[in-house]
Amino acid sequence: MRKSKFLSRVLRHAPESIGLEMDEAGWVDVEALMRAARRAGVGLDRATLDRVVAENNKKRFAYSPDRKRIRASQGHSVKVELGLDPVEPPEVLFHGTADRNLDSIRAEGLRPGNRTHVHLSADEPTAVAVGRRHGRPVVLHVRAGAMHAAGHAFYRSDNGVWLADTVPAEFIDVPGA
Question: 3-class DSSP state for residue 63?
Fold first, then answer.
């Protein structure tokens, strides 16, 4: 298993799978992570961890300011409080999905599923890439400015991904539909 996939699984979904405990904000002790990874048969030293954090193209992981703790920037399926303050979003954000999901999205809007938030992109190419991972991509336009004006909160993760608790269907446009 690649190191970044291992870290995603452990820091976003299953810290207990290698005997780790994360705090309420999703942080784990770096030394404890490296020890637990080695016990699980994954060679993870500080240089490797530094490289994975620095080179991950989606900036999925972040160190605490003192570099003694690490966490996933977003995408958790375990309950965490990232401590992000609500921020005003741009007028439009984007969400990539597969075309087979359109009927349920039109009916129910966007839900986080097994994650803690709905993930939104600031640009269409990123949304296309996300949608492509799930099937034939469709890029939804989320009227984030109007949604924010209606009282919905938005957050921006450390790696620039926009987060919302849900996106009601009335704020979603499907181009070409």
Answer: strand
